Amino acid sequence: MLTTLQNAYQYALENSDRVFTALQQHLLLVAVPLAIGLVVGLPLGWWSARSRLVSTVMLNTFNALRVIPSLAVLFLAVPFLGLSFWSAVLALTLLVMPPILISTDVAFRNISPAIREAATGMGMPPGDILKTVELPLALPVVIAGIKTATVEVIASATLAAFVGAGGLGAFIVLGFAVYDPAILLVGALPVALLALLAEVGLSAVQRAAQPPGVRQPL
Amino acid sequence: MAKLELQNLTKAYSRDIVPVKKLNLAVEDNEFLTLVGPSGCGKSTILRLIAGLDQPTEGRVMIGDRDVSPLPPGDRNIAMVFQSYALYPHMTVRDNVASGLKMRHLPAGDIQKRVQEVSGVLGLDPLLDRKPAKLSGGQRQRVALARALVRNPDVFLLDEPLSNLDALLREQVRADLKQIFEDQKSPIVYVTHDQTEAMTLSTKVAVLSEGHLQQLGHPHDIYKTPANRFVASFIGSPQMNLFPLSRSGNDVALGDFRLPLPGGVQAASVILGIRPEHLRLPQEGDAHIVSGNVFLVENLGMHDLVSLKVQGDPSLTLRALISADASWSKENLKLALPPESIHWFDGETEQRLK
């Protein structure tokens, strides 16, 4: 095992340019779907928390889409978007949407109606209620959803290599192809490290956002 | 400062569910109006209509000369204290109290000054940097009050603010509330189902039942001259003794005892009411005396609450408050009914007979 790790280190040093490029591609494969997921998922989640109809439609649709494996979505996207970065982005966006959407829905839905009503009764306009009351209370649960989405997309972005979109998954695919565990580790270890960093970092943010005495987020 | 007026206020959720029916009420400056009634009488709905949390089906809410019925809550300049306090859990006490002022975009210095004034009055100074989770029930209650007081609103609304406190604390906070609101100039509308709160805090009490205003008046008047059977039974603890009786001539029979009706009463059937605290052990010269067998004695400390079955009709139960020091027969007890303490109501309409 130690030898494999040494070989992996040696391979990474010898191919540092390729590793660095793959890391950049991987981060982009994480950032773009996550950004789309946040821009679309957060407002949709907020809306679905306020409307039973929207909630039913949204949550069921995205939960149904989640059942389709990312790899299958990836290959389904290829005929339309080709073997490209955007095929991977589409598959990964579908992956990040449910946790962001569901956690945002739950976060806003769980705010005590009495608190919202108190703010209204004290004359706070809806915009101020959202900004000063609802958002701070919803934030920890929303961050929990973003954390899940981030960790999932970091791990799943490795699949992008199957449609030629690069990323750290390229080393895993190559390692499998030539049956060299060292090359595989050059892709797998940074991915695991990134996922761990995201988990620890976002957990810290989530704890910091948690008001004392308010129920722990999911 | 502004007068609050409810004009013909009606709220209907459906044809059958009408919690507020054509209510007319006015609360002047310096007045403390308590809406009191059993659960489901519409009192909290009225408060929500005044606050703008619900829209009336008919009628108007006037503050001063303004018809605020179409306005959202934010444009009514009303402060509300909720039963659950509903403090913002992510904010410190200081921020909770200041929240109503910040949304008006007042200068920071002014906000700080107002918060300090109010926190001084309510004894919140040592708690200003704590969050609600670190406060006791009584402290949370005071923060909720401070959040309302700091705004200098045109109208104060309080929705059962003491009901989540234990009995001892409730008594203490009730006394605090009375002192705090005595200095306020704005009209106050207070909702409770607790008649002790209604009687002790208010300058005016509105007794409600099934969406209808049963009586509006000074707490003393409501106690002394209840307008109908419902008010008579609802106000006063222990509850007033009420006996539906048929008249025969100018008398009614209470078991074996005949009691004369007041002059001018035309009703075929009447309801006789007498409060347990107005029944007393007979003295020389008492004209109306009834007796019965005692079947229950409840020790209330200063008084014994005695229940007896009236002689001649065991289905009639009379309850009397008798001083714990008094000596009386535990088996057959005679009680005097002072005529000035007897209330008469029409047997059919249940309205007070003049």
From TrEMBL, chain A:
Gene Ontology cellular component list: plasma membrane
UniProt KW keywords: Membrane, Transmembrane, Transmembrane helix, Transport
Location within or outside the cell: Cell membrane; Membrane
Ranges where the ABC transmembrane type-1 domain occurs: 23-202
InterPro entries: ABC_transp_perm/SBD, MetI-like, MetI-like_sf
Recorded topology in the membrane: Multi-pass membrane protein
Residue ranges of the TM segments: 27-47, 67-96, 153-176, 182-205
A GO biological process held by the record: glycine betaine transport
Protein family (similarity comment): Belongs to the binding-protein-dependent transport system permease family.
Name of the featured protein: Glycine/betaine ABC transporter
Organism: Shackletoniella antarctica
Automatic annotation (TrEMBL), chain B:
Highest taxon of the lineage: Bacteria
A GO CC term attached to the entry: ATP-binding cassette (ABC) transporter complex, substrate-binding subunit-containing
Keywords noted in UniProt: ATP-binding, Cell membrane, Membrane, Nucleotide-binding, Translocase, Transport
Keyword ATP-binding: yes
A molecular function GO annotation: ABC-type transporter activity
Taxonomic path: Bacteria, Bacillati, Cyanobacteriota, Cyanophyceae, Oculatellales
The protein's name: Sugar ABC transporter ATP-binding protein
GO BP terms: carbohydrate transport
InterPro entries, sorted: AAA+_ATPase (IPR003593), ABC_transporter-like_ATP-bd (IPR003439), ABC_transporter-like_CS (IPR017871), ABC_transpr_MalK-like (IPR015855), ABC_transpr_MalK/UgpC-like (IPR047641), Mo/tungstate-bd_C_term_dom (IPR008995), NA-bd_OB-fold (IPR012340), OB_MalK-like (IPR040582)
ABC transporter domain span: 4-235
CDD domains tied to this protein: ABC_MalK_N
Pfam families xref list: ABC_tran, OB_MalK
Entry-linked SUPFAM superfamilies: MOP-like, P-loop containing nucleoside triphosphate hydrolases
Signal sequence residues: none
Keyword ATP-binding belongs to the record: yes
